[in-house]
């Protein structure tokens, strides 16, 4: 357990240099998914790493209250952002929630969106 990683995507226990398990990957994946869906870098407004870390350790998480996102995706992301790693879904549960959602873009819709841009 090295504590390595880009702080913006690290789970709270990693930022605290505490023991962690594979649930930190679900947390990080959820941050990346949020960035992809919102087209915004998480925690961009913080001037220093210390301010960002304090915000995360204080419970701040990216907002998932987007009306365009399916409820199951928002629920999965909220669970993945949990402070307690035992409350985070495992990767299979997280992927199942995403797979049942209309939010996941098919290759065809990705091509259509790329052409429109």
Automatic annotation (TrEMBL):
<feature type="domain" description="Protein kinase">
    <location>
        <begin position="1"/>
        <end position="104"/>
    </location>
</feature>
<dbReference type="Pfam" id="PF07714">
    <property type="entry name" value="PK_Tyr_Ser-Thr"/>
</dbReference>
<dbReference type="GO" id="GO:0004674">
    <property type="term" value="F:protein serine/threonine kinase activity"/>
</dbReference>
<dbReference type="InterPro" id="IPR000719">
    <property type="entry name" value="Prot_kinase_dom"/>
</dbReference>
<dbReference type="InterPro" id="IPR051681">
    <property type="entry name" value="Ser/Thr_Kinases-Pseudokinases"/>
</dbReference>
<dbReference type="InterPro" id="IPR011009">
    <property type="entry name" value="Kinase-like_dom_sf"/>
</dbReference>
<dbReference type="InterPro" id="IPR001245">
    <property type="entry name" value="Ser-Thr/Tyr_kinase_cat_dom"/>
</dbReference>
<protein>
    <recommendedName>
        <fullName>Protein kinase domain-containing protein</fullName>
    </recommendedName>
</protein>
<dbReference type="GO" id="GO:0005524">
    <property type="term" value="F:ATP binding"/>
</dbReference>
